[in-house]
Amino acid sequence: MLTTAITISLVLVGAAVGLTLIRLALGPTMPDRILALDTLAIDAIALVVILGLLNATALSFEAALLLAIMGFVGTVALCKFLIGRSIID
């Protein structure tokens, strides 16, 4: 039962990644593209956690935390760059 749920969630997150890549390519403005990159980071976190559940490893949860931190810092840096302020204050 759990394997079926994990398989379905992998398919759905994969579809979300595909749709996000379309938004990244077609985004008319730069904020749309930054939002798509942030969504890709969230999708990557979801994939790492789901694969960690599938493989029953605790190490993947630490990797998901690192991805979350890097995604947040990257989004903040891109947004600060977009509004024209210095990235490092």
Biggest β-sheet strands, sense, barrel: none
How would the global form be characterised?
flat
- SSE run: HHH
Number of domains: 1
Beta-strand share of residues:
under 5%
* Poorly predicted segments: none
Separation of the first and last Cα atoms: 50 Å
Task: Please provide a written account of the structure.
- It contains three helices and no strands.
- The chain has 89 residues and is an all-alpha fold.
- Helix 1 runs antiparallel to helix 2 (30-55) and helix 2 (30-55) runs antiparallel to helix 3 (59-82).
- The radius of gyration is 15 Å and the shape is flat.
- The N and C termini lie far apart (50 Å).
Task: Give the arrangement of secondary structure elements.
Blueprint: H1 2-26, H2 30-55, H3 59-82
Short description:
The chain has 89 residues and is mostly helical.
Brief descriptors of the model:
mainly alpha; 0% strand; 89 residues; 3 helices
